[in-house]
Specification:
The protein has two domains: about 75-175, HIT family, subunit A; about 180-354, HIT family, subunit A (2-Layer Sandwich). The chain is built from six helices and 14 strands. The protein has helices at about 125-145, 180-195, 200-210, 255-275, 320-325, 330-340, and strands at about 15, 25, 75-80, 90, 100-105, 105-110, 150-160, 170-175, 215-220, 225, 235-240, 280-285, 300-305, 325-330. The strands form three sheets. Strands 3-6-8-7-12-13-11-10-9 form a nine-stranded antiparallel beta sheet, with helices on both faces. A hairpin with a 3-residue loop joins strand 9 and strand 10. It starts with 12 loop residues before the first strand and ends in a 13-residue tail after the last helix. The structure holds 5,6-dihydrouridine-5'-monophosphate and zinc ion. 5,6-dihydrouridine-5'-monophosphate binds next to loops.
Length: about 350
């Protein structure tokens, strides 16, 4: 074994995801490789505020024959191609130890964030973002109250690179009987920590991140954005409330306003990074909606963006990550640094009268 002192910006190492128990391989020495590729910008998209062919715009027909109302703020509808169906069998349906299966039921919905086809979260007004926050909370409340729904997963898939089918600002909800894998892993880790320390894992984590400072991207009176110590995606972030909050419906009005603020600031920085409409998958994790209180839980949002070096150079989860484990070159600390340097004026607004 080498006697060289470990240097986190030099030496390959593995970091543990305290929230879900996974590990990531960090290879910081590789960021010293010269990058020869081009830094290209994506062609500036000029979308109309209303697109007659868009299935999410107000008044338009959707696939399957339904028609959208002339909505003026947010609009939620049942997904016409739902991955989960509300009626059906549940429980074990497999055949033996090696062929286990469980029948699943649930509901899928689509949330239009705005009637405006040309907007994205960073370009929306704070009052309209607040409305999106309220809709998220209201949907968790409504769906979570159903006895057949024990977990409500809210997410946004943004950008064609992430498989989003439509640039109209929208998110999705999948709500079902069993708890999906990722929140289930987080449940195990948060519960174990709570049992050991009688403390909330993510609140202790946040305290230590605020003390360290190196991975803190932005903050306001109620929320903090960090690049988590165990981040896998290049500019992955974790959005956390400062207070112990189990789920979105528990947020106060002021916390919701502050959430609108931090969402706008974060997504503006994201877009400014490569002067492009920054793609990502984001989503909320909170306590299960099985009617019990889960004090070990702490509400949070994950943002998983694939872009690495430009509007077109993305990180691929292939090769070693498929067969070995996730790996990253740019460290979480370097990513936080880059995001901290970004302006909070959207690049498309630069030059406009303030
Ligand atoms: P994505 O852009 O993340 O794929 O989400 C769009 C969702 O909208 C997708 O799940 C649904 C698709 O099933 N959809 C409808 O419900 N009705 C339509 O007319 C088209 C798309
Ligand atoms: Zn549209």
């Amino acid at each position: 074994m080498s006697t060289v002192v470990f240097e986190p910006t030099e030496h390959p190492h593995r970091r543990r995801n305290a929230l879900n128990g996974d590990w990531v391989l960090v290879s910081p020495h590789r960021t010293k490789r010269p990058w020869q590729g081009q830094i290209e910008k994506s062609a500036q998209e000029n979308r109309p505020s209303y697109d007659p062919t868009c299935y999410l715009c107000p008044g338009n027909a959707r696939a399957g024959g339904k028609q959208n109302p002339q909505y003026t703020s947010t609009f939620v509808f049942e997904n016409d191609f739902a991955a989960l169906l509300p009626d059906g069998p549940r429980g074990e349906v497999g055949v033996g130890e090696l062929f286990q299966a469980q029948a699943e039921t649930g509901t899928c919905r689509v949330i239009c964030f705005s009637p405006r086809h040309d907007l994205t979260l960073p370009l929306m007004e704070l009052s309209d973002l607040r409305r999106v926050v309220d809709v998220w909370a209201q949907q968790i409340e409504e769906l979570g109250a159903r006895p057949d729904i024990n977990y409500v997963q809210i997410f946004e898939n943004k950008g064609s690179i992430m498989g989003s089918s439509n640039p109209h600002p929208h998110g999705q909800i999948w709500a079902n009987y069993t708890i999906p894998l990722e929140p289930a892993k987080e449940d195990v880790q948060q519960r174990a920590y709570y049992d050991r320390h009688s403390r909330v894992l993510l609140l202790d984590y946040l305290t230590q991140e605020l003390e360290a400072g190196v991975r803190v991207v932005i903050q306001n009176r109620h929320w903090v954005v960090v690049t988590p110590y165990w981040a896998v995606w290049p500019f992955e972030v974790l959005l956390l409330p400062r207070r112990h909050v189990l789920a979105l419906p528990d947020l106060t009005g002021d916390e919701r306003d502050a959430l609108a603020d931090i969402l706008k600031r974060l997504t503006t920085r994201y877009d400014n990074l490569f002067e492009t409409s920054f793609p990502y998958s984001m989503g909320w994790h909170g306590q299960p909606t099985d009617g019990q209180r889960h004090p070990h839980w702490q509400l949070h949002a994950h943002f998983y963006p694939p872009l690495l070096r430009s509007a077109t150079v993305k990180k691929f989860m292939v090769g070693y990550e498929m067969l070995g484990m996730p790996q990253r070159d740019i460290t979480a600390e370097q990513a936080a640094d880059r995001l901290r340097q970004m302006s909070e004026v959207h690049y498309t607004m630069v030059g406009d009268a303030a």
